[in-house]
Every structure is written in structure tokens, then in C-alpha cells.
Amino acid sequence: MRQVAAALRQISAGFAALADAVSADEAETPTETRYRALISEWGQRGLTRAEASALFRKHGFSPQAAGGWVRGDWLEIRDDGRRYLTDRSLSWPAERGDSN
After folding, report:
1. How many angstroms separate the CA atoms of 89 and 40, rounded?
2. Which end of the chain has fewer surrounding CB within 10 Å, N or C?
3. Cα angle, residue 76 at apex, residues 5 and 66 outer, rounded to 5°
């Protein structure tokens, strides 16, 4: 089962790379565009686990990516059980030159 899981992860990564290739944006990488869109839509509100997972999926990310965001201090889970973007996440678009 571990080999099957590993193979599925490789297939998933391949599909992500293919999606990036076909939706290429001349100005920035598609992944960066999706990060910006996710952060913009999320804003400062707290989301339940299900809402956060749905938002990650909507923008082409695996719901499990939220764990990496927590470890990287981009996302925090507060005492109310909701997920919030950290100041680091909220300031990132401006640091990258996004005027929104």
C-alpha cells in the first residue's frame, strides 16, 4: 500500500505540473497566481477545516497542503478551531508587488 500511495503522489505532482504548463501566465508562475487568489479570497476570516479544504481545492491545491502552511507559519489554527492566515500570509502579496 505504501508503494501505491507513493505512486499516487507522483501522479498527482505530474498532473499539477501539467496544469501549470497549460495555464501558464506570462507575468508569474501559475502556482504563485493561485497562492494570491487563495490568500485574497480567504482574507482575515477564520475558516473551519472543511471550508479551508474546499478553498484549497478550489484554487488547485491539495487540502493536505494546509499542514505545510501551518508548519511554515502561513496558517494558524486558533483556540476556536478555525484556520486563519497569519500576518506572514496576509503581507506576502504586498511584498511581492500586489497592490490589492
Report:
1. 10
2. N
3. 20
Q: Kindly indicate the confidence band of residue 6, based on its pLDDT and cuts at 50, 70 and 90.
A: confident
Q: pLDDT per residue over 32-53, tens digit each?
A: 888 999 999 999 999 999 999 9
Other beta carbons within 10 angstroms of residue 39's beta carbon come to 19
- pTM of the entire structure? 0.67
The answer to whether 60 and 34 have CB atoms below 8 angstroms apart is: yes
Q: Are 14 and 45 in contact (CB under 8 A)?
A: no
Select from 31, 82, 91 the least CA-distant residue to 61: 31
Of 10, 16, 85, whose CA–CA distance to 45 is shortest? 85
CB–CB of 39/59 below 8 Å?
A: no
Distances (CA, A) of 99 to 26, 33, 34, 41, 79: 18, 14, 16, 15, 32
